[in-house]
Task: inverse folding
């Protein structure tokens, strides 16, 4: 009965089928395969384990392939590391020779083309800050603003520049094709800066998977409405976003992104460091619990665990804790008041009219649940956009649709055989509502469907049905 979903990342700490099953039973709805780490064979084994669990439990489970994206890194040092002091001069160049305390290789000509005098570069997740004072086509001369230890192959961020590179590296294209061959439901696209990045991923993926964009670059904020419109879902990736933007801006952007996704009816995930202390401790800090709760109060579709489940010491406890926080928030009367005050205006479509009416009717007659019969999942997504006070039971004849909807707020999706008559849909819907524990004898349910049956985007029927 929990509406907000949980995304759990798999990795060395949770890799076997038994371990993945433990996370599923603890409350994970979506599993993330992080292609920044692990081999294709490891991801294949984990994917197959998830599908085995899905078969054994009869529950649709979503699988997300998170592509690494282009990684910008410095080269190596003669002594593996150096110490930089604020105020000193330090150069980055295209020379592949090992670096020292005066210079290091930066093997990315695109950065040299994008920066200008005064541009700041962030190294090692922002621990080192440099300002560009002079530049040529082959060298950047900088002043160290924030010093510290700098070692081999640390990452480079360029917050105030749009880099002329694709969000898909050669590795990403190989990983993308492999993930699509596996049959993943969601492709998470990293390093999105502009609409063209989404178009390229969409062209490569076709209709084999839905596209989720990770908002982690300041440049993406300049195209936010268009990027959300072009994607199937959005992730607020607060890690890199917090490196490239002032920390005080991240909560504001998080709320803005979640609100815009709600308005457009696109699923949105809040991610990164949600229960970070549980990587090494059996309980979170109170601030972390509050962070998860804030995302739930904001009505995010899902919250995500990264290192907590992939590499942490307490993966199952992390999912259980996140589940408990969500449940408590969703029991709070203020949560329902916030949801009731945040409904967006419907679009002038039959589908929006039906889903709006379904919520209003369900709340008026105190229905046990709303049941959507869908092919593509679009009507169910619109029903979730309404954030009804009752669960949404989605019935679909498409297995991929049921799996993708496992990430959507309030939706419990079930894959069944195609029904040809509306009367058969009604009978099957009421049977499943009782079977799945959403309704019992004497309850009423609200059913939406499209006639003729099996036509995507044709939702045009609303019916109230009693459970016998």
Result:
């Amino acid at each position: 009965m929990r509406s907000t979903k949980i995304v759990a990342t798999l990795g060395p700490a949770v890799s076997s089928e038994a371990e993945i099953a433990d996370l599923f039973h603890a409350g994970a709805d979506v599993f993330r395969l992080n292609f920044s780490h692990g081999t294709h064979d490891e991801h294949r084994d984990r994917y197959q384990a998830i599908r085995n669990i899905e078969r054994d439990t009869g529950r649709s489970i979503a699988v997300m392939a998170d592509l690494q994206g282009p990684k910008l890194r410095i080269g190596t040092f003669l002594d593996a590391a150096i110490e930089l002091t604020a105020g000193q001069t330090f150069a980055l160049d295209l020379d592949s020779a090992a670096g020292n305390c005066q210079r290091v290789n930066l093997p990315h000509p695109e950065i040299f083309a994008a920066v200008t005098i005064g541009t700041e570069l962030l190294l090692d997740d922002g621990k080192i800050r440099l300002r560009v004072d002079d530049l040529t086509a082959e060298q950047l001369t900088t002043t160290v603003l924030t010093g510290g230890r700098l070692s081999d192959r640390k990452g480079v961020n360029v917050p105030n520049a749009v880099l002329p590179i694709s969000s898909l590296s050669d590795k990403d294209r190989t990983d993308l094709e492999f993930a699509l061959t596996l049959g993943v439901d969601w492709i998470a696209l990293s390093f999105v800066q502009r609409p063209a990045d989404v178009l390229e991923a969409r062209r490569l993926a076709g209709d084999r998977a839905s596209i989720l964009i990770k908002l982690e670059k300041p440049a993406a904020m300049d195209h936010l409405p268009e990027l959300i419109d072009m994607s199937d879902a959005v992730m607020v990736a607060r890690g890199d976003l917090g490196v490239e933007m002032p920390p005080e801006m991240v909560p504001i952007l998080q709320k803005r992104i979640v609100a815009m996704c709600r308005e457009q009816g696109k699923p949105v995930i809040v991610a990164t460091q949600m229960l970070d202390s549980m990587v090494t401790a059996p309980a979170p800090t109170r601030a972390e619990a509050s962070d998860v709760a804030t995302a739930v109060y904001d009505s995010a579709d899902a919250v995500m665990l990264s290192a907590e489940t992939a590499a942490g010491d307490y993966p199952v406890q992390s999912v259980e804790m996140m589940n408990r926080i969500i449940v408590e928030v969703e029991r709070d009367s203020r949560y329902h008041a916030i949801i009731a005050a945040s409904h967006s205006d419907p679009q002038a479509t039959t589908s929006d009219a039906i889903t709006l009416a379904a919520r209003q009717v369900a709340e008026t007659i105190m229905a046990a649940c709303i049941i959507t019969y869908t092919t593509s999942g679009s009507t169910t997504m619109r029903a979730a956009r309404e954030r009804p006070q009752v669960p949404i039971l989605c019935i679909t004849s498409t297995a991929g649709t049921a799996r993708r909807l496992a990430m959507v707020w309030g939706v419990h999706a079930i894959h069944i055989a195609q029904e040809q008559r509306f009367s058969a849909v009604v009978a099957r819907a009421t049977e499943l509502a009782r079977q799945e524990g959403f309704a019992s004898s004497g309850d009423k349910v609200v059913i939406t469907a499209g006639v003729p049956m099996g036509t995507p985007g044709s939702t045009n029927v609303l019916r109230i049905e009693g459970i016998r």
Notes: The radius of gyration is 24 Å.
